[in-house]
Design goal:
By secondary structure, this protein is of the alpha+beta class. The chain has three domains: 112 residues; 98 residues, Zincin-like (2-Layer Sandwich); 125 residues, no CATH class. It contains 13 helices and eleven strands. Helix 8 packs across helix 9. The two termini are 25 Å apart. The protein binds zinc ion. The site of zinc ion (ZN) has 4 residues, from helix 9 and helix 12.
């Protein structure tokens, strides 16, 4: 397996003890300190480069420089600070911003017309990064490692409040975690229930409610879940299914499961499309308030037939490929448990486990999921 450069830093940031964490982080911050001291030099170099090559080249240098920071695993570093240190609310804000900011991709297609414009952009970034580093150092110097405060154990997980969230906010998270844990125990997958769940302000994938980081074997959950308990429970189970997947000694079992379902899905689709008794007559209406009216069915050559439609209210016209029409009218059911499950064997597995724990899986799917798990375990 290729080693992710982030991994070394992640290892350094997942400490066996708070004391060890402080020692390791001090070393890492030391490295960053050196890096920060080199910045003025870099600035002069960029100046020189811009004079020689023009503003666009200067912007590209800036991108390279930011890329270096990303490769250093700075996101993991800042995220590590958030999960390991108690800090003042104002510092937390800065570190959260840092964790997001170092991860952002910068477009290389931005065009700058003047050197002044580039200088402005460059100096703004530089100032920001210096501030991030300064606050990070401060947090480590005066902060208390989070492990020193008691964390509640919920449903077999230790909940780490990595954002200084209020008891009310934490109560909602506790509810989500305890429901997720119970639903997994109920179906008998207890092996994934261990370790910490880090409660954080924001996740790398912006809108996600929870995230499982494979190399760290770490679970993160968003703090603000009010009104989204149901989807959050499902997401936590989905993410822990990725942990279960990591425990399987035979990953081909999940590939086989995926291909079985994919094949079945294709067969069903093909059969439904070919069944002319399912094709609509002109005048058939469907959709919200029956807004779509079928005007004709078009069949050209070997391609999928098209259902031509007209919107009865605003008179727009268009067409549905037959398979989509049949799905929209309930005459064709996807074999995948969700649309997202189509993505790949791994996501299909996680989606199936989530549906299983929510008691929404058909007997047939439950049977093939169980078979895949036992094959995966080498049983
Ligand atoms: Zn997933």
């Amino acid at each position: 397996m290729m080693r992710d450069p982030d991994e070394d830093i992640l290892e350094r940031l997942s400490p066996p003890s708070p004391e060890e964490a402080v020692r390791r982080d001090a070393r890492l911050t030391g490295d960053l300190g050196c890096q920060a001291q080199k910045l003025p030099e870099l600035e002069r170099f960029v100046e020189w480069f811009a004079d020689a090559q023009g503003p666009q080249a200067k912007y590209e240098r800036l991108l390279t420089w930011l890329g270096t920071f990303q490769r250093m695993g700075l996101r993991a570093f800042f995220q590590g600070l958030l999960t390991q240190y108690e800090m003042l609310a104002k510092d937390r804000k800065v570190i959260e911003q840092a964790a997001r900011d170092v991860d952002r991709r910068y477009s290389s297609r931005v065009r700058f017309r003047t050197v002044g414009h580039v200088n402005g952009s460059y100096l703004t970034r530089l100032k920001k990064f210096r501030k991030f580093l300064a606050v990070a150092k401060q947090v480590i110097a005066k902060g208390k490692p989070i492990g020193t405060t008691a964390c509640p154990v919920v449903g077999g997980f230790k909940l780490v409040n990595a954002g200084g969230f209020s008891p009310n906010v934490m109560r909602v998270v506790e509810d989500v975690v305890s429901q997720a844990s119970k639903s997994m125990r109920d179906v008998g997958i207890e092996s994934v229930i261990y370790g910490d769940i880090n409660v954080v302000g924001s996740l790398r994938r912006g809108k996600a409610l929870a995230h499982y980081d494979v190399p760290q074997d770490a679970v993160f959950i968003r703090a603000n879940l009010r009104g989204r308990v149901g989807p959050a429970v499902r997401t936590v189970v989905h993410e822990l299914a990725h942990r279960l997947e990591k425990m399987l000694s035979n990953p081909y079992a999940l590939t086989r499961l995926y291909h079985d379902i994919q094949e079945e899905d294709e067969d069903n689709t093909e059969r439904a499309i070919a069944d002319r008794s399912l094709w609509p007559d002109p005048g058939f209406t469907f959709g919200d308030d029956g807004k779509w009216e079928v005007t004709s069915v078009e069949k050209r050559g070997r391609g999928e037939p098209r259902v031509r439609v007209r919107n009865r209210f605003d008179h727009r016209t268009g067409y549905y490929p037959m398979a989509r029409f049949l799905k929209a009218t309930g005459n064709l059911h996807a074999s995948f448990v969700t649309e997202y499950a189509r993505k790949n064997p791994s996501e299909n597995f996680a989606e199936m486990v989530a549906a299983w724990c929510a008691d929404e899986l058909s007997d047939r799917d439950e049977a093939r999921l169980l078979k895949a798990i036992s094959e995966g375990l080498g049983a």
